[in-house]
């Protein structure tokens, strides 16, 4: 308990509360000080001044409500903001002014335009393959529409895919590929934590630097809070590794701190790449077991499709570092090994607006749901969804699609788990089959539809992934990895317990508390 009280996380939380309180008090205090000053200056008109200032407060509140109602943002975020503004009046206006924006910093937004242009140079000449016609195009806009909002989301063929059903398989493959690196290693992870797995990776990276390999590593500051110390990036830099701490926390109240780097990307020499749900910490490979068996997945790409992951890494690396950016060309391999008999892959990224003009990650999921005909199977650690996602899932079930979703039975975050369970009743009544993974915690993020299309990446079914975070994933069409992915789903269903309406009805008081919490879920 003492360790938690004196942790960096506790100090950060305290700083946010204090500075937020100060900001709101300043805004509201100025308003009421003006009222008091005018009343003292014109004592005879004091009642009218009080009435006028009160009326002005309600006018400001009304105008702010209009602004929130007509603003271009996720509809589910509008209701809690309107409730907050109306309930707290001028205080609510102050809270809205400080916290309602989800946009990155102005500097990052400007650099994002430059970085997207540089990445597009390597992608714009690559049309959607002719083979993507009819049924294939259905899953690809996942083709043209996705390309229009994310120029770097090119579709590649001739790329080998390999699916890993548990973190231990991923760890062994990753360490072997890192060992074979000759030119460079680029890695980007939401969480690193001292332990057997991370120590093995770090030791290997330090050794590769001595062999002349360029190594870059980026980790998220808040994601690693409480897992490594404040200046840990400097320790890594002393080993010769170019290390960046993404979006470091500074004690200023702003929603910029919500824009976390939730990606998990590793690229070796531009020819081998990894992504998935697995971070570099012992629980992800079941060395530690704080939540039972940790079920996670990853995918390995080899071939030209790795270019998509490489460009995502380089763009965000350049956004996170000082300077005008670099030329990407030296890191693009001149030739790639082609693998015949594979389908197509489409690595893509998502993030906060306006860096990404649309909610790309949610759009991809929605399109797959809408196009599925036989079955749609999903794994996700969190099921905190908006109205359009919920309705898409129910409509798919109603038209006869076998829609199944696997979520954890042992949660890592009790509030998130409660919010997940608050969606059970509507989905079950709509025909969606919900399963809880009884051996432990599911951290995998995967979609599989009709033996044809699969997605493996970092994108949870929650507001943080769709609105706030930088995310990545790989969409696969008829690749060899899909058969392994289907086999993994079938094995996971076998050890999971299907939920019923009776399960969803348990604990009425807690369910109502969850419904209230769900109202404010989009804000955080």
Shape call: globular
**Beta-strand residue fraction:** 15-25%
Number of domains: 3
Q: Report the radius of gyration as a whole number of Å.
A: 24 Å
Mean pLDDT: 85
Q: Give the helix/strand class.
A: alpha/beta
Looking across the biggest beta sheet, what order are the strands in? 1-10-17-16-15-11-12-13-18
Output the CATH topology of the largest domain. Endonuclease, Chain A
The CATH C-level name of the largest domain is Alpha Beta
Estimate the helix proportion, in percent. Answer: 40-55%
The CATH superfamily of the largest domain bears the name: Endonuclease Chain A
Report on the architecture of this protein.
The chain has helices at 2-5, 8-41, 46-70, 75-88, 90-99, 106-120, 135-138, 144-149, 167-179, 196-210, 232-237, 306-320, 360-371, 387-398, 414-421, 424-429, 463-468, 481-494, 501-505, 508-520; strands at residues 156-157, 160-164, 184-189, 214-220, 242-246, 264-268, 272-276, 293-295, 298-302, 344-350, 375-379, 402-408, 433-437, 440-442, 446-449, 453-457, 471-477, 496-498. The chain is of the alpha/beta class. It has 3 domains: 2-99, no CATH class; 106-343, Endonuclease Chain A (Endonuclease, Chain A, 2-Layer Sandwich); 360-523, Endonuclease, Chain A (2-Layer Sandwich), CATH 3.30.870. Strand 15 and strand 16 (453-457) form a beta hairpin. It is globular, with a radius of gyration of 24 Å.
